[in-house]
Amino acid sequence: MEKFSNEYFKKLANDLKFDLSDEEIEELKKDFIEVEKQVELFDSIDTEGVQEMVYPFETPTYFIREDEINEVLSQEDALKNAKDVRMGHIHVPKVVR
Amino acid sequence: MEKYFVTIGIEIHCELKTKTKMFSSAPTSFGEVANTCVNEVDLGHPGTLPCVNKHAIELAIKACTGMHCTIDPLVRFDRKNYYYSDLPKGFQITQQFFPIGKDGYVEIEVDGEKKKIGIERIHMEEDTAKQFHKETGTYIDFNRAGTPLIEIVSRPDMHSAKEAAAYVETLRKNLFYLNVSDVKMEEGSMRCDVNISLSPDQNTLGTKVEIKNLNSIANVQKAVQAEIERQSALLDAGEKVEQATRRYDEAQKTTILMRKKEGNVDYKYFPEPNIFPILLDEEWIRNIQDHLEELPDARIERFISQYGLNDYDASVLVADRSMADYFEEVVKSTKETKKAANWVIGDMSAWLNKNNQSFEDLEVDADAIASLINLISNGEISGKQGKAVFEEVMLGKDPKKVIEEKGMKQVSDDGAILALVSSVLDANPQSIEDYKNGKDRAIGFLVGQVMKASKGQANPKRTNELIREELAKR
User: Fold this and answer.
1) Where are the domain boundaries for CATH 1.10.10.410 in chain B?
2) Which of A15, A69, A97 should one mutate to test binding to chain B, selecting the residue with the greatest count of B CBs within 10 A?
3) Which of B2, B51, B342, B432 is exposed most, by the fewest CB atoms within 10 A?
């Protein structure tokens, strides 16, 4: 199977729960091929014996937050972004049987 | 009796007793109005950054120390990625690669035998939102999202339902005594998942089945027993046990399939880039460990040695921390430690039960109970009077005042008792006759008559002695 086939994009889109038209797939295909070329460039760097680095600084921090209540949203603000609010709860389609 | 070799491992999630969330300064809560204890961090808004709660680390260190774990002073967090509506960020922050504690144990006791159960690891993480599945859809309350948790993972060291229940009970008591969590299984602040497998021989492991959401210690034991029986029956019939997640159904007394295991989910764990590794101050850690609360087993030992209690009474007291605390308050003001234990375990517990109260919310001054115990042992009131006074003390009255008001004071004054004894003896010549003829029972009758004449206030012991003295003279 071709790496970036139409089926591949349709499956990805379906997993992320949205639809893609054939035109959109063609556009994405170009992007994906280009991005992959860029990523392949990393392979040209020799990382033999180099330790992975997660953080930009080598030294650990010492700061920890005290257990004091500080920032709390009102219910109104907390629910502002939700599309469907019922009885103070965010309401979403059921995902269990 | 079991035909198969049973192997059990247990994972326990436990909410930590903090004021705020693991990574945000919003309050932790239980039973609050939905979505009122959250902020942008808990809701996973873009651009927010997690900030680790110091007290949560402190409580995790206490739990680790209580379970004899080695503590990693470099605190690191990782992301566990999965997509579900109870997890607003799309990942849970946990400690996958470097748990704060590892390689510990707890000691359990089953049928009088002690046994160590290994703890593989204890790590910190955040709780998810609470979901309510209704007909129309799912209702989400984010109040619980971000609540600090520790997950305690045992080694597969348990081999029976009793051991599993004893392990959970021991952990529950220890965490409660350490003030790490309020460990209410029925409210979900302590949750328990049991992994169980059966095998025909000790050297191979059978297929693992996980039982989720056990909400009481009794149910842990029942569920494990039911699952052992279910798997035994399958193996007896030559069938295979399927790898799956099940739940215990109390009504049917069996486990029910929730979902089959469809391969291993890949959570794509990686170090949490938004939280730098935190190096804890060794001094701070040592200070927490040096000031650890007394654990239940140590307290039982101390009750036996310090107060001269027997093993049974000490265990009963310690099983309820509030009761044990109350007992210790009482014995601050009385030397009668065994009697104090009897009152607390016996009459007080019965009274609280009857009135639907517990030692935790008891307002009766421990001093008053101590004073009551002293009044009885000094002979100022009789044991029987003591019971009546106790009823009033439990309503908040001072025992000395009750005695005064009711005119209960036990009469120990020889002159006063003697006068009553003489008149009772004068009125009962037949009893004197009976006594002289060897009927010792007559004494009991005479004591009763004196007690009646004194309206119960005569000291029974002294009355008995005086009657015998008087009878000898006649």
Assistant:
1) 414-473
2) A69
3) B2
